[in-house]
Task: inverse folding
C-alpha cells in the first residue's frame, strides 16, 4: 500500500563535499577596495584583533552547494510532501500566495529604523492584523513582538508579574497554576519569570478537576495558564466557573493559543474570561513552520492590561500609522524590533484569503476531521481513545496504544516509526503525559477525507502487523533516508557530538 | 462555494464526516461550549478574497513602503542590508524544508537535521567555539539568555555590560534578567576612544559578577581593543566572559574563541537573511565545550549519531533533557520554536562563501567603512566617527558643528531619496547630535559619494 521511498543520498557532511582548501572561489559580490585609497587593514586594525587564518569553512562551487542542499531537502518531509498530523502543532497547508507576497522587496528591504513615513505599508499591515486578532480573540490590544508561542507566554507571564507588582501584590502572588495536561512551555515560561508552578490534576473527562482547582487557589495565586480546548482536544466545559474561581482570588487567566484553531469564529477567549492570550501564527494562521521556525506569537490583552504591553505597538492617527510607545506600565521589550514582520505578512494574507467566514469553517472542519479520525482509529484493534468517553473532541485527539503494547509489545513509538514508512508524518508521541502510550493526532482542516481514510488504514495495517508478526513494526522505519537512529548514543556524555569541530577533536583523541 | 484550502468543505463531504461521527449538524460538535460565549457571526473581519483580490490588496498596501532598493539606505545598528545570494532563496524556499516542523522524527527529517548540524558546525568554525545551538530568536534574546545562563552557572546575580549598547538589546536583556533578580550594571566607556577603562572595570567586577559582556565590533561600530584583558578581568573574579559578534567581521577579526569567550552571542541575520523590518532575525548562541556550560545552555542542539545497527551516520536533536517538553518548569529555557529556517539560510550562505569569501567580505566591509568615514568627514562641520580608530559597518556621524540639526539633515536627505542613519541623542545625549550610519557590500563607492554630495548641499546651504 505504499510506494514511498525517501531519497537516500547518504549525503556527506558539507565539510567533505568538494575540495578541501579554497582556491579561486568567489564571494558573490565585486569589490573595489584597491581603489578606495584607505589604509591596509593591517595598519587599521590592532594586531591582536586580526585573524591569522581564514575561517575553516568548506570551499565549494555554487553548484556543489546547490546540489548538497537540494539533496538534503529531498531527505526532509513537510506538509507539502504529505499528511503531518502532529498534535498541538497544527500542521495545516501553508498557502503559496502567502509566501509569494512575503518574498517581495517591499517586505525584505525595509529597515526597522526607517522613518515612519517610509514604512506606512508595513505599519498598516501590523495595525490591521492587531485589530483582527483582537476581534478573533475578544481582546483589546495586541503586541506582535513575540517570535514564537513560548516567547508569547514569556511576554504574558511578564505582564502578569507587572500587573501584580503594580498592585503591590507581587510579594504574595508567587504561584501560577497549570493543569497536568499543559504544554511544557507553560511551566517553563512561568518559572522563567520567577513564579512557582502549581499543577492541578485532570478529572476522568480530561478537564480541570474543579475540586482540585478550588483547593489550589489562594491569595498566592498570580494566575492560571490554560489551553482550551485542552491538549486532549476536549473543551473545558467549566471554563466560566474556572474563570470565576481565578478572578475571585485576584488572579489572571492566561490563554495558550496553541489550540485556537478549534474554536476560531465559534467562541472567543475574551468572552470566556481570559485576560491574556497568545496566538501561534505558524499554527492557526498557516505560516510555514520552516523546520522549527520562525513563527510568531502575538499576545493580546484585555483593556485593563493594555498599558503593560511591550513597546512599541502600532497606532493610527487618521490615515497615518505610527509606532506607539504610549504604554505607561510597559514591561519593556521582549524582542529587538517589532516582531517577525515577514511572518506577519503571511498571516495577514491568510486572514484576507479566508475572511471571517472562512476562519469559522476552518474551526468546523478541523473538528470534523479530528473526530472522524479519532472514530476510525479508535475502532482499530489495539488502539483506544481514553478520557471523556463519548465526548466529541475538538481539533485533535489522543489515541492510546497501551492495549497494543500489552498484547504485542509494540509501543506508541514503534507505531510512529512504522507510520513514516508510508510517506506520512507521525503524530506527537507520549504527550500529554496523562495518557499512556499516547499518540496525539491533529489532522487540521486542510487534509482531505481520502487522506484521512488512508491515514486510518495505515493504522489498521500496523495493527495487523503487530498482532501477526511485529518484526517489521519493531524494526521500522524502513523507507526513510536512514533507519532507526541511536538517540541514546547521540546524547551520551561520552559520545555526543555537536559540531564538525568537536568530531575532529574526538577523532584525534582516539588512538 | 467551498474554499480552495479546505478539502472537505463541499456539502457532500461534510455530510459523510457528520454521518461517520454520528451527529446531524456541525453545531453539535460545538455544543460543549457554554451558550453564553458561543459566537454569533462576527462581522468586522474581512470577507473571503480570491487569490487575485488578496494579492492585489496586500501588494497595494505594501507599495506604501519605501525600500532600500527605492532609496539609498544607510541604516544598520544591529540589522543590516547585506547581499543575499540567489541560491539561498532557491534552496531555503523548497517546500520540504519550508513546510516541515521541528524534526521530532529524525529518520524522516534528516535534511533539516543535517542542515542545522552544518549551521552549528560552520558557525563554530567562524567563532572557533565548539558548541553552537541551532538558533535563538535574535541577538537581543540570545543576550538575555546568556545573562540567565551565567547566573545559573555562577550562582551570582550581576551582569556587566558596556554603556554604549543598543538600546533595544539592553531593553530585552532587562526583560530576561530583571524578573529573576539579575542586576544589569553598565561600565563606562571613553568618549574619545569608546574603550572600556580597565581600571574602572576592575572597580565594577566583584564576587557578585555572573558575567561580563562585550561586543566586538561594538554597537557604535568601533573595535574593542583590549578583549584579552577583559577576559582576564572577568575570569579573575570567577565570572563568565560573554562576547557579542557580527559574523561578517570574522573573516578578518580574531574569533571570540581565541580570546577566551565562555559564551558567544550575536546576530546571524547578515548571513543570507533579509532585513524584513527587523524580523525574523537569527540569534547566535554558542559556548565552550565544557559539560557544565552545555548542560545550562538554552535552545535546541542537533548532534551526530549513527543508526542503531551502527551502519550509517545520521543526525537528531540531542541533550533534550535541558528542554521544556521534558524538564518542564526546571528547563534551562522555554524556547522551542526558534529560527531554524534562518539558520538554514545562514548555513547555505556560509557554504557559498567559504573561508575565502568571509575574508574578502570582511576586508571589503572594513574598507568601505573607512572610505565612508574619510569622505564624510570632509563635509564641513561633520565629525565622523565620534570615537577614534577603525570602524566596521556602523559609524557615528555628529552634526553639532554643522549649524544644522541632525533630524533636519535626515529630512533633507530623505527628500533626495537617501535614508540617513538613526538618531542616538535620545539614548546617548553625551554624544551630542549624533547619528548611527552603516554601509555594507551592497553600497558602492558611488553610493557613499552620493551621500557626501547630498550632505554637502544640505549642510552648506
Result:
Amino acid at each position: 500500500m505504499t510506494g514511498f521511498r525517501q531519497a537516500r543520498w547518504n549525503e556527506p557532511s558539507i565539510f567533505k563535499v568538494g575540495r578541501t582548501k579554497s582556491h579561486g572561489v568567489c564571494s558573490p559580490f565585486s569589490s573595489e577596495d584597491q581603489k578606495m585609497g584607505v589604509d591596509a587593514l593591517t595598519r587599521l586594525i590592532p594586531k591582536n584583533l586580526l585573524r591569522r587564518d581564514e575561517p575553516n569553512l568548506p570551499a565549494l562551487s555554487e553548484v556543489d552547494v546547490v546540489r548538497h542542499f537540494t539533496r538534503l531537502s529531498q531527505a526532509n518531509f513537510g506538509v507539502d510532501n504529505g499528511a503531518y498530523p502532529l498534535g498541538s502543532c497544527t500542521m495545516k497547508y501553508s498557502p503559496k500566495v502567502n509566501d509569494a507576497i512575503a518574498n517581495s522587496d517591499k517586505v525584505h528591504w525595509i529597515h526597522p529604523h526607517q522613518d515612519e513615513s517610509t514604512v506606512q505599508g508595513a505599519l498598516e499591515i501590523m495595525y490591521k492584523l492587531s485589530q483582527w486578532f483582537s476581534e478573533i480573540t475578544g481582546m483589546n490590544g495586541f503586541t506582535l513582538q513575540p517570535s514564537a508561542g513560548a516567547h508569547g507566554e514569556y511576554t504574558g507571564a511578564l505582564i502578569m508579574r507587572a500587573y501584580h507588582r503594580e498592585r503591590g501584590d507581587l510579594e504574595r502572588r508567587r504561584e501560577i497554576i497549570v493543569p497536568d495536561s499543559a504544554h511544557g512551555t507553560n511551566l517553563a515560561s512561568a518559572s522563567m519569570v520567577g513564579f512557582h508552578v502549581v499543577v492541578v490534576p485532570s478529572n476522568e473527562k480530561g478537564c480541570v478537576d474543579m475540586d482540585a482547582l478550588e483547593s489550589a487557589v489562594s491569595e498566592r495565586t498570580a494566575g492560571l495558564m490554560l489551553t482550551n480546548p485542552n491538549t486532549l482536544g476536549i473543551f473545558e466545559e467549566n471554563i466560566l466557573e474556572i474563570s470565576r474561581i481565578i478572578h475571585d482570588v485576584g488572579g489572571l487567566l492566561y490563554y495558550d493559543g496553541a489550540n485556537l484553531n478549534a474554536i476560531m469564529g465559534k467562541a472567543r477567549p475574551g468572552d470566556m474570561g481570559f485576560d491574556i492570550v497568545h496566538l501561534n501564527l505558524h499554527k492557526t494562521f498557516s505560516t510555514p513552520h520552516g523546520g522549527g521556525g520562525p513563527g510568531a506569537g502575538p499576545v493580546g490583552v484585555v483593556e485593563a492590561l493594555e498599558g503593560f504591553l511591550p513597546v512599541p505597538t502600532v497606532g493610527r492617527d487618521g490615515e497615518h500609522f505610527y509606532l506607539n510607545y504610549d504604554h505607561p506600565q510597559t514591561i519593556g521589550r521582549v524582542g529587538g524590533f517589532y516582531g517577525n514582520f515577514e511572518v506577519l505578512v503571511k498571516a495577514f494574507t491568510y486572514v484576507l484569503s479566508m475572511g471571517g467566514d472562512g476562519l469559522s469553517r476552518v474551526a468546523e472542519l478541523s473538528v470534523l476531521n479530528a473526530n472522524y479520525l479519532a472514530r476510525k482509529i479508535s475502532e482499530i484493534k489495539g488502539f483506544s481513545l481514553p478520557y471523556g468517553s463519548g465526548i466529541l473532541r475538538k481539533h485533535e485527539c489522543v489515541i492510546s496504544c497501551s492495549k497494543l503494547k500489552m498484547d504485542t509489545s509494540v509501543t506508541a513509538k514503534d507505531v510512529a516509526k512504522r507510520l513514516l514508512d508510508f510517506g506520512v508524518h507521525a503524530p506527537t508521541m507520549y504527550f500529554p503525559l496523562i495518557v499512556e502510550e499516547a499518540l496525539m493526532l491533529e489532522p487540521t482542516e486542510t487534509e482531505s477525507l481520502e487522506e484521512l481514510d488512508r491515514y486510518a488504514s495505515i493504522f489498521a495495517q500496523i495493527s495487523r502487523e503487530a498482532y501477526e508478526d511485529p518484526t517489521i513494526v519493531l524494526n521500522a522505519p524502513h523507507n526513510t533516508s536512514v533507519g532507526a537512529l541511536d538517540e541514546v548514543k547521540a546524547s551520551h556524555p561520552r559520545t555526543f557530538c555537536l559540531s564538525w569541530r568537536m568530531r575532529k577533536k574526538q577523532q584525534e583523541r582516539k588512538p | 462555494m467551498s474554499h480552495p484550502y479546505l478539502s472537505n468543505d463541499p456539502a457532500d463531504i461534510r455530510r459523510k464526516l457528520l454521518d461517520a461521527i454520528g451527529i446531524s449538524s456541525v453545531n453539535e460538535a460545538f455544543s460543549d461550549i457554554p451558550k453564553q460565549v458561543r459566537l454569533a457571526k462576527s462581522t468586522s473581519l474581512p470577507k473571503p478574497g480570491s487569490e487575485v483580490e488578496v494579492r492585489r490588496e496586500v501588494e497595494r498596501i505594501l507599495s506604501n513602503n519605501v525600500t532600500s532598493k527605492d532609496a539609498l539606505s544607510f541604516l544598520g545598528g544591529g540589522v543590516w542590508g547585506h547581499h543575499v545570494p540567489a541560491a539561498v532563496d532557491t534552496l531555503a524556499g523548497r517546500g520540504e524544508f519550508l513546510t516541515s516542523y521541528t524534526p521530532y522524527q529524525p529518520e524522516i527529517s534528516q535534511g533539516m537535521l543535517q542542515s542545522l548540524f552544518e549551521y552549528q558546525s560552520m558557525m563554530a568554525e567562524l567563532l572557533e567555539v565548539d558548541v553552537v545551538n541551532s538558533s535563538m530568536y535574535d541577538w537581543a534574546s540570545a543576550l538575555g539568555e546568556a545573562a540567565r545562563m551565567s547566573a545559573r552557572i555562577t550562582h551570582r546575580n550581576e551582569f556587566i555590560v558596556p554603556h554604549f549598547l543598543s538600546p533595544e538589546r539592553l531593553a530585552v536583556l532587562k526583560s530576561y534578567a530583571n524578573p529573576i533578580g539579575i542586576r544589569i550594571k553598565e561600565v563606562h566607556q571613553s568618549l574619545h576612544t569608546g574603550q572600556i577603562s580597565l581600571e574602572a572595570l576592575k572597580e565594577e567586577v566583584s564576587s557578585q559578577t555572573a558575567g561580563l559582556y562585550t561586543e566586538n565590533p561594538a554597537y557604535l561600530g568601533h573595535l574593542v581593543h583590549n578583549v584579552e584583558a577583559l577576559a582576564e578581568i572577568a575570569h579573575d573574579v570567577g565570572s563568565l566572559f560573554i562576547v557579542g559578534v557580527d559574523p561578517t567581521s570574522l573573516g578578518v577579526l580574531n574569533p571570540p574563541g581565541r580570546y577566551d569567550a565562555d559564551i558567544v552571542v550575536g546576530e546571524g541575520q547578515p548571513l543570507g537573511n533579509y532585513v524584513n523590518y527587523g524580523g525574523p532575525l537569527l540569534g547566535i548562541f554558542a559556548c565552550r565545550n565544557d559539560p557544565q556550560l552545555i548542560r545550562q545552555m538554552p535552545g535546541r542542539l542537533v548532534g551526530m549519531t549513527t543508526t542503531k545497527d551502527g551502519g550509517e551516520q545520521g543526525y537528531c536533536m540531542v541533550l533534550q533533557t535541558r528542554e521544556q517538553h521534558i524538564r518542564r518548569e526546571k528547563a534551562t529555557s522555554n524556547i522551542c520554536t526558534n529560527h531554524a529556517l534562518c539558520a538554514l539560510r545562514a548555513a547555505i550562505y556560509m557554504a557559498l562563501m567559504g573561508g575565502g569569501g568571509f575574508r574578502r567580505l570582511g576586508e571589503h566591509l572594513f574598507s568601505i567603512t573607512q572610505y565612508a568615514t574619510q569622505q564624510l568627514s570632509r563635509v564641513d562641520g561633520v565629525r565622523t566617527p565620534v570615537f577614534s580608530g577603525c570602524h566596521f559597518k556602523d559609524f557615528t556621524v555628529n552634526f553639532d558643528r554643522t549649524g544644522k540639526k541632525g533630524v533636519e539633515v535626515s529630512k533633507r536627505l530623505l527628500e533626495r531619496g537617501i535614508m540617513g542613519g538613526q538618531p542616538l541623542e535620545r539614548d546617548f545625549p553625551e554624544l551630542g547630535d549624533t547619528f548611527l550610519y552603516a554601509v555594507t557590500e551592497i553600497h558602492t563607492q558611488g553610493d557613499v559619494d552620493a551621500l557626501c554630495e547630498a550632505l554637502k548641499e544640505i549642510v552648506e546651504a
Observations:
- The mean pLDDT of chain B is 96.
- Residues 340-376 of chain B form the longest helix (37 residues).
